[in-house]
Design brief:
By secondary structure, the chain is of the alpha+beta class. Among the domains are: 190 residues, no CATH class; 129 residues, Jelly Rolls (Sandwich), CATH 2.60.120.260; 91 residues, Immunoglobulin-like (Sandwich), CATH 2.60.40. 30% of the residues lie in helices and 28% in strands. It is built from 20 helices and 42 strands. The protein is globular and about 95 Å long. The relative contact order is 0.07.
Length: 859
C-alpha cells in the first residue's frame, strides 16, 4: 500500500457477520426465505452468458428477463455477494460450496486480458462512441463487487485473483480514456465502479486499481454538492447515490488530503434525507430525483426504487461508523424497517422494485426466475446481511445501533450480549450480559436514544433505576460488568402525523419507529408492465385519499394527540374527528402484503380551495394513467432500450432539472412505441422554451410527418407539452409505431415523459343523478338539463350523488368542485331551493349545466 496516504481511523468498527445472531422471528424468516431462494438457482444458468462470451458451450440456457438482455450478468454479481454473506452468517457448507463452484466457473470464463462478463466488450466500445448501450459499467461493478465479497466473506482466494485480473483490465481501459471519452463514459450509469475499485485496491495494493478508481470519481458532481448546492433534480437516483458511496470510500481508503470527498458525501446525505425522501426513507420517482422539497406532487406508483434505499443505507452506515452521529443511525433504523423489510414478501421471499407512495396502490414483487430486476439483486444482498448493523465496536465498548432481538458474541471483551426486543409492540428492551471469562474489565454499553422518543428514556440495572447519561444521542452505561447483569431500557413512543415539505397537510402516521398504512381492500389488483419486464401496480379506479375534518386541517393536526386511539391488545390505530374514523385501520406498513394501501392522507376541510385543487389534480393524474397506452421516461437507459432507442449524434443530458434526449445539428433519435391497432391516438411530447429551447424539430410517426417547426409556447421560459394526433389510418393494423425526432437546426430535443394516449372523452354529460329522497321530474336523462325535485314539507335537507359520464370528469355543485364518489348534503332554503350542477367532460374543457329546482310540497 502506498505510504503517502494514511487511511482514517473510524470511530466504530464492524462485528463479523458470524458474531451476531438474530432471534427476531420476522427477520429470521426473512433470512431463511432468502437462503431458500438462493439455493434454488441453477449456477449453470447464471454462468451461461459468461461461457457464451468466452466462446465456451453453455451448460444450460440463460435465465430470461434482464438476464437475456445487455445487462446480463448483473444478477450473478449480486448472487455471489449474497451467497458469501449468507455463508458468513450461517456457516452452512452448501453455501460455501456454491461460492466455490461459481468462482471456478468464472475462472474458466475469464479472458487472458482479464476481461470477464456475460456480454462482449463491444458494449463498452459503444458507450465510448456515444452510441446507445445498456449500462455495461453498472454490470461490471456488480461482478467485481461479487468477487471481492466472495474473498472477504467466504475466504475465496481464487475470487480475489480473478477480481485482481479483472481490475487490471478495467484499469487498462479507464487509464486510456481521453477527457472526451471519459465524459461520454461517465454520462452513462456505471454503478459504484469507484467504490468497488477502492475496495479492490485495499485488498491488492495495486496502484493501477487505485488510479482506475479515481477515473470514476466525478469531481464536477461532488464539488457543487459539497458546497450545499442541490443539483440533484433530474438526476437518475441509483446512478448518483453509488457515486457518493465511492467518494466516501475514497476518503475511507486514503484519508489524508481526501476530506473533500467525505464532505461531499456528508452534504449529499443531508440533501437526500432532508429534501428528497419520503416517510419510509425511500426516494425518487420514475427512478429520478425531483425538485428539492417537492415530494407530494411526485407521489405515484413509480416512487421509491428499492435499490436507492439499499445504497442510502450503505452510505448511512459508513458515515455512522466514521462519525458516531446518531442521525445516521436514526435514518438507518427508519429506512431498514419501513423500506427494506417492507420490500420482501414474508411467504415467498420475493422483493419489490418500486414502493408506491400514492394512496390506493399495492406492493408488487418479482417472480423467482423471470424478471431479475436490479432490485432483485440488491434484495438478495439486503436479506443476507440483516445482522450487519445491530452492533458496532467502539474503543471503550459496544454501541447498540438497532433494537432487534439478537445475540452478540463480543469475544474481545469475553462476553455475550443478548437483546430481547419487541418494538414497537412493546416499548421495553432487555439486555443480558453473559461473561465467558471471570473478569472482563470496565467497558461501556451505548444505547441509541431514537429521534422518535415521546418522553424521557428510562434505564434500570438489575432492577434498580439508573440515571440516563446521555452523550451525543446515546445513553451510556460504563462499569465493570458481572455475569448475568441485566439492563432494561424503556423507550416511550406515541403516534405522530408526519407531513411533507410541500404539503404539510398530506400526512403519514408513525408509531415509534414504524410507518403505518391503512388497508384498502383487494379489488382489481391487476399489474402492468413498464421498462424492461418491470411489473407495477395499477389503480383502475378512483381512490379516496383524503380525510375531511371539521374546522381547519391545522387545528386538527395541532390537536393530534387526542385524535387517535390504539385498539386494545393490537398494534392497530384508528383516527378521531375525520370522515373515515370507522373505516381506516392503521397497522405497520412493513407487514402489509396482498392488498391496496394508503400511507399518505391529505387532511382537508370540506369544500376548501385546497380540497378542490386536490380533487382536480387527482383526476388529472388518474386520467393520464387510464389513457396511457405507452410511456417512456426519455433518457432513462432501461426504458429507452425497451423502446428500441436508435439514432446518430444524440446524447442524454439534464437541463433545468429535467432529463432530456437531444440531438446535435443533423442528428436524430427515435423509438418504437406501443399503439392500439385501428384507433386514433395522440403522441404527447414535452419541450422547453427559452435558452436552448424554441428550436425547430421534425417529428415523424410511421411514414408521416406529424410536426415540423418550432413547438409553440406562450411562456417565456419553461417546459410545455404538446399533443399530436395519430389518426387511425396512420396506425392501421400496427401494434407498434416508430417515432423519430430529427434536428436540422440547432441542437434540441425532448424532455420528461413521452406518451402515447387514447383521446380524452369530450362528452360533458352526467352518467347519473340520484337524490336520497323525493320525486325527480322528469326522470333523469343525461341530455336533459332542467329538473324539479319534489320533497315533503317537513324536509330540511336532501342528499344527492352526481356521477360524471367518465370517472375522470368533474362535477361542480353551486360553483364548488365536489368529490363525486360521495353523497353530498344540500340544506334547503325555505320552500324553494335551486341546485346548480356543472359537469365537465373527461377532457376538462367541455361543460354542461344542470339546474334542479327543489320544492317542498305535499307528496
Amino acid at each position: 500500500m502506498p505510504t503517502e496516504f494514511t487511511a482514517p481511523s473510524a470511530r466504530l468498527d464492524d462485528y463479523p457477520l458470524s458474531r451476531v445472531r438474530i432471534h427476531d422471528a420476522y427477520l429470521q424468516n426473512a433470512f431463511d426465505q432468502e437462503v431458500r431462494y438462493l439455493k434454488s438457482y441453477s449456477l449453470d444458468r447464471l454462468l451461461a452468458g459468461f461461457r457464451e462470451t468466452r466462446g465456451l458451450p453453455p451448460l444450460a440456457e440463460k435465465y430470461p428477463g434482464w438476464e437475456s438482455t445487455e445487462i446480463r450478468g448483473h444478477t450473478l454479481g449480486h448472487y455471489l455477494k449474497a451467497l458469501a454473506q449468507a455463508y458468513a452468517v450461517s456457516g452452512e457448507s452448501e453455501l460455501r460450496e456454491r461460492v466455490d463452484e461459481l468462482v471456478e466457473g468464472l475462472h474458466e470464463c475469464q479472458f487472458e486480458s482479464g476481461y470477464l462478463s456475460a456480454f462482449p466488450e463491444e458494449l463498452f466500445d459503444r458507450i465510448e462512441r456515444k452510441q446507445p448501450a445498456w449500462v455495461p459499467w453498472y454490470t461490471m461493478h456488480k461482478i467485481a463487487a461479487g468477487l471481492t465479497a466472495a474473498y472477504e466473506y467466504a475466504g475465496s482466494q481464487q475470487a480475489l485473483d480473478i477480481a485482481s485480473r479483472l481490475g487490471d483490465w478495467i484499469a487498462g481501459r479507464a487509464l486510456a480514456w481521453t477527457p472526451e471519452v471519459r465524459g461520454a463514459v461517465l454520462a452513462v450509469e456505471y454503478g459504484g465502479m469507484n467504490d468497488c475499485l477502492y475496495d479492490l485496491y485495499k485488498l491488492t495494493g495495486s496502484p493501477a486499481h487505485l488510479d482506475a478508481a479515481h477515473r470514476f470519481d466525478e469531481d464536477s458532481l461532488f464539488a457543487p454538492v459539497r458546497e450545499g448546492r442541490d443539483i440533484l433534480r433530474g438526476k437518475h437516483a441509483n446512478t448518483t447515490i453509488p457515486k457518493f458511496l465511492g467518494a466516501l470510500n475514497r476518503y475511507r481508503t486514503l484519508g489524508g488530503s481526501e476530506r473533500f470527498y467525505l464532505e461531499a458525501a456528508e452534504s449529499f446525505w443531508k440533501m437526500v434525507v432532508h429534501h428528497h425522501s419520503y416517510v419510509t426513507g425511500g426516494n425518487s420517482e420514475w427512478e429520478h430525483f425531483g425538485e428539492p422539497d417537492k415530494l407530494d406532487r411526485e407521489r405515484s406508483n413509480f416512487t421509491a426504487e428499492t435499490c436507492n434505499t439499499y445504497n442510502m443505507l450503505k452510505l448511512s452506515r459508513e458515515l455512522f461508523k466514521l462519525s458516531g452521529d446518531a442521525k445516521y443511525a436514526d435514518f438507518y433504523e427508519n429506512t431498514f424497517l419501513n423500506a427494506i423489510l417492507s420490500s420482501q414478501h414474508p411467504n415467498t421471499g420475493m422483493t419489490m422494485y418500486f414502493q408506491p407512495m400514492a394512496t390506493g396502490y399495492f406492493k408488487v414483487y418479482s417472480s423467482p426466475f423471470e424478471h431479475f430486476w436490479c432490485c432483485t439483486g440488491t434484495g438478495m444482498e439486503s436479506f443476507t446481511k440483516l445482522n450487519d448493523s445491530l452492533y458496532f465496536r467502539a474503543a471503550d465498548g459496544i454501541v447498540v445501533h438497532q433494537y432487534l432481538s439478537s445475540e452478540l458474541d463480543a469475544e474481545e471483551l469475553g462476553l455475550k450480549l443478548t437483546q430481547r426486543s419487541a418494538l414497537p409492540d412493546s416499548d421495553t428492551v432487555l439486555f443480558t450480559v453473559s461473561l465467558n471469562r471471570p473478569h472482563s474489565g470496565r467497558f461501556s454499553l451505548r444505547f441509541r436514544l431514537p429521534e422518535w422518543l415521546s418522553g424521557e428514556a428510562e434505564l434500570t440495572l438489575n432492577g434498580g433505576r439508573l440515571p440516563v447519561q446521555a452523550q451525543n444521542g446515546f445513553a451510556v452505561v460504563d462499569r465493570v460488568w458481572s455475569d448475568g447483569d441485566e439492563v432494561e431500557l424503556r423507550l416511550p413512543m406515541t403516534l405522530r402525523a408526519v407531513g411533507l415539505p410541500d404539503a404539510p397537510h398530506s400526512v403519514a402516521f408513525k408509531y415509534g419507529p414504524t410507518v403505518l398504512s391503512a388497508g384498502l381492500g383487494q379489488d382489481d389488483m391487476a399489474e402492468s408492465a413498464t421498462g424492461v419486464a418491470v411489473s407495477v401496480p395499477t389503480r383502475n379506479r378512483l381512490v379516496k385519499d383524503f380525510l375531511t375534518v371539521e374546522g381547519s386541517p391545522d387545528e386538527w393536526l395541532q390537536s393530534f394527540a387526542s385524535r387517535w386511539e390504539r385498539r386494545c391488545g393490537a398494534l392497530e390505530f384508528v383516527l378521531r374527528g375525520t370522515d373515515e374514523d370507522d373505516r381506516l385501520i392503521f397497522t405497520p406498513h412493513y407487514k402489509r402484503h396482498g392488498e391496496r394501501y394508503g400511507i399518505y392522507w391529505r387532511v382537508a376541510e370540506a369544500d376548501s380551495k385546497e380540497m378542490q385543487r386536490h380533487i382536480r389534480e387527482a383526476k388529472r393524474g388518474s386520467r393520464t394513467e387510464e389513457h396511457t397506452v405507452d410511456s417512456l421516461p426519455v433518457g432513462n437507459d432501461q426504458y429507452e432500450l425497451e423502446h428500441r432507442i436508435r439514432g446518430e449524434r444524440t446524447f442524454v443530458d439534464v437541463w433545468d432539472g429535467s432529463t432530456t434526449r437531444r440531438a446535435e445539428t443533423g442528428g436524430w433519435f427515435g423509438y418504437t412505441l406501443t399503439v392500439r391497432p385501428g384507433e386514433e391516438q395522440v403522441l404527447e411530447a414535452t419541450f422547453f422554451s427559452g435558452h436552448r429551447g424554441d428550436r425547430p424539430i421534425t417529428i415523424e410517426a410511421g411514414e408521416a410527418v406529424i410536426f415540423d417547426g418550432v413547438p409553440p409556447s406562450d411562456i417565456g421560459r419553461g417546459f410545455h407539452s404538446h399533443r399530436y394526433t395519430l389518426p387511425a389510418e396512420l396506425i392501421g393494423e400496427r401494434e407498434q409505431l416508430d417515432v423519430t425526432f430529427k434536428v436540422g437546426g440547432e441542437e434540441t430535443g425532448i424532455f420528461g415523459i413521452l406518451r402515447v394516449l387514447t383521446p380524452f372523452d369530450p362528452d360533458p354529460s352526467l352518467r347519473s343523478l340520484d337524490f336520497g329522497t323525493g320525486r325527480l321530474e322528469p326522470p333523469f336523462e343525461p341530455s336533459r338539463t332542467g329538473y324539479t325535485l319534489h320533497l315533503p314539507e317537513s324536509a330540511d335537507h336532501v342528499d344527492f350523488l352526481a356521477v360524471p359520464l367518465r370517472r375522470n370528469g368533474l362535477v361542480h355543485a353551486d360553483g364548488v368542485l365536489i368529490e363525486d364518489t360521495l353523497r353530498r348534503l344540500v340544506k334547503l332554503d325555505g320552500e324553494r331551493t335551486v341546485l346548480r350542477l356543472t359537469a365537465a367532460a373527461e377532457d376538462h374543457e367541455q361543460t354542461r349545466d344542470y339546474v334542479i329546482e327543489i320544492v317542498k310540497s305535499p307528496l
